[in-house]
Write a structure and sequence with these properties.
Strands 2-1-3-4-6-5 form a 6-stranded parallel beta sheet, with helices on both faces. The chain is built from 7 helices and 6 strands; from the N terminus they run αβαβαβαβαβαβα.
């Protein structure tokens, strides 16, 4: 980017996409966020953890998040499941549950294997994620900019509720930025 004060994570006004998504949670009625933590979701997860109104649940595998989201819905609330794109492979079978039972399930996915990826192992799954999710009946949202992530998240939540099935927001590596693996990120 030409402006050194604007990073892929932030809008021109300095707002971080993770912070913007976090701010949507109360309006969306989301009080539970399940995650296998990922640096690409850092700000969002840190804000969730610091807020006593949000229950951040750390998972051992991503498919536990799908089960948690289904159980939360049965209790009357929409939950969000946050993961890295490599974790999408772990939820393939489990996504049958919300699809068959018509349960809204909201995914926030930090993408890997795209622009500036330095780990070749991330590329095949990163490329497959959008089509894989769509083939599994998940409505996929791909915001073009940091400022588009929170509106896409709100739209995905509305679509999941209305359709009674999973919806995912894929936050591209262009928005998140490349991992440096030097201890600076």
């Amino acid at each position: 980017m030409d402006d050194p004060d604007i990073s892929p994570h932030r809008d021109s006004d300095g707002a971080d996409w993770g912070e913007q998504v976090f701010r949507t949670l109360p309006d969306l009625g989301i009080r539970h966020v399940a995650t296998v933590p990922d640096a690409g979701l850092g700000t969002f997860l840190e804000l969730c953890e610091a807020d006593p109104a949000i229950r951040l649940i750390t998972l051992t595998t991503e498919e536990e998040g799908i089960a948690l989201a289904c159980g939360t819905w049965l209790g009357g609330e929409l939950a969000a499941v946050a993961m890295q794109s490599s974790g999408v492979g772990n939820v393939v079978n489990m996504l049958g549950l919300p699809n068959v039972c018509r349960i809204p399930c909201l995914l926030l996915v930090s993408m890997r294997g795209e622009a500036e990826e330095r780990n070749p192992w991330q590329v095949p799954v990163g490329r497959a994620v959008p089509d894989l999710l769509a083939a599994l009946g998940v409505d996929v949202f791909r915001p073009e900019s940091a400022s588009g992530v929170a509106p896409a998240f709100a739209e995905a939540a509305a679509r999941a509720r209305q359709a009674g099935r999973p919806a995912a927001v894929l936050v591209s590596q262009r928005i998140i930025g490349a991992k440096s693996f030097t201890g600076e990120d």
